[in-house]
Amino acid sequence: MKKPTFKQILRAVNHYVVFFLLAAFVVTCCMTLFVSTLSTTMDITFTEENIADAAKLTFGNVVLLVLLFTVFDLVRRKLTVDRPVKKITAAAEKIMQGDFSVRIAPLKSTMGMEGFNQIIAAVNKMAEELSGTETLRTDFIANVSHELKTPLAVMGNYATMLQQPGLTEAEKEEYAKAISTASRRLARLITNILKLNKLENQQIFPAAEEYDLGEQLCQSLLQFEDAWERKNLNIETDIEDDVRIRSDAELLGLVWSNLISNAVKFTPEGGTIGVSLKVEGDWAAVSVTDTGCGIKPETGMHIFEKFYQGDTSHATQGNGLGLALVKRVVDILNGEIGVESVFGQGSTFTVKIRRN
Q1: CA distance 289 to 276
Q2: Buried b / exposed e along 178-211 (16+ C-beta atoms within 10 A)
Q3: pTM for this one?
Q4: CA 282 remoteness from chain centre
Q5: Which CATH architecture has domain 143-200?
Q6: pLDDT value at position 14?
Q7: pLDDT tens-place string over residues 221-250
Q8: Is 60 exceeded by the pLDDT of residue 34?
Q9: Cα end-to-end distance, the chain, whole Å
Q10: In which band, very low, low, confident or very high, does the pLDDT at 353 lie, cut at 50, 70 and 90?
Q11: Helices (H), 101-233
């Protein structure tokens, strides 16, 4: 058991003095009133000796009562104030040191503990949020490191092979093409990381303008004409005419490009991609459908997470940031996004954007 410190002793003495002065004042007033009333009512005359004896007895009672109240108050403060404050302070210090796993058990006593329990709930919630943020940060750094390492390793290996003597022109062209592909992938990765960082930190603010959404969808689709022709994909469109919306065209362009790019990437040769635009009340609903590999239910819960790639067979064609960008843009524009998928048959991504 720790010995009381000088400050604690001084605080206890201070409490005692305060209680004593308060009790002495109250008791003196009460006794004066009592004696005065008793003397007047019963016509009793008190001598100095009687008053002195009564004063000594009253003083002793006051000292004893004040001592009892002081001890009671110290115990009460120890249990209802000091102990909870120490628990909360200790937890806060651990959180400041980076331990976000700390949690404080709610106080069971109901006597004056509601306020402390509210503080404890807030501290626990803060620790939980910080823990989640720290996990995301750690995972993000690990994933970025991994994603950067892969194209850099490819570029390094092929650069070394290019330095070998006696290479044919075909081999040189092949190695140079591999380096060029890896460098483009690295550039896309860095660009997407920067975009996602700006979106998540709200450094990009929507610039609303009125424009024809159907025309934008057609332009986005045509950007991938070479890709769908190489795979001999069938393109089906059902786009309503003159659907105008007031939103950020550049940000929405990111959404359509990523969704159509994924549809092309995951649809096998001879498959079908569909793009539709419908007006649903105050909303414009855009659906991008493919007949690709589909999404497993356990994968569907994570597709909007950064760097998550459910189908690793296409990992070299992406970096797992596309759908994270899409989700963030839709959230910023106060829209909605959903996905319906049957594994092995295909997927449909639907984005709803307010028209005004």
Answers
A1: 8
A2: bbeebeebbeebeebbebbeebeeeebeeeeeee
A3: 0.50
A4: 30
A5: Orthogonal Bundle (1.10)
A6: 77
A7: 988 888 889 899 999 999 999 999 999 888
A8: yes
A9: 69
A10: very high
A11: 114-162, 169-200, 213-222, 225-230
Token couple for 305: 């997470």
Per-residue pLDDT reduced to its tens digit, 183-215: 877 776 677 667 666 666 655 567 788 999 999
Both tokens assigned to 287: 């659906």
Contact 23, 69 (CB under 8 A): yes
Enter the tokens of residue 323: 């759908």
Domain extents in the chain: 6-99, 143-200, 209-354
**C-alpha–C-alpha distance, residues 82 and 178, integer Å:** 67
- Tracing tokens 């001999």 back to the chain, one arrives at 232
pLDDT tens digits, residue range 96-134? 888 878 888 887 765 666 778 888 888 888 888 777 666
Question: How high is the pLDDT of residue 316?
Answer: 40
C-alpha–C-alpha distance, residues 86 and 133, integer Å = 26
Q: Which helix (H) or strand (E) holds 332?
A: helix 322-332
Return the H-helix or E-strand segment holding 291: none
Tokens 């990765």 sit at which residue? 189
Query: For 354, which DSSP code?
Result: E
* Token pair of 225 as six digits: 């004409």
**CA atoms within a 13 Å half-sphere pointing along the CA-CB vector of 307:** 16
What's domain 209-354's architecture?
Answer: 2-Layer Sandwich (3.30)
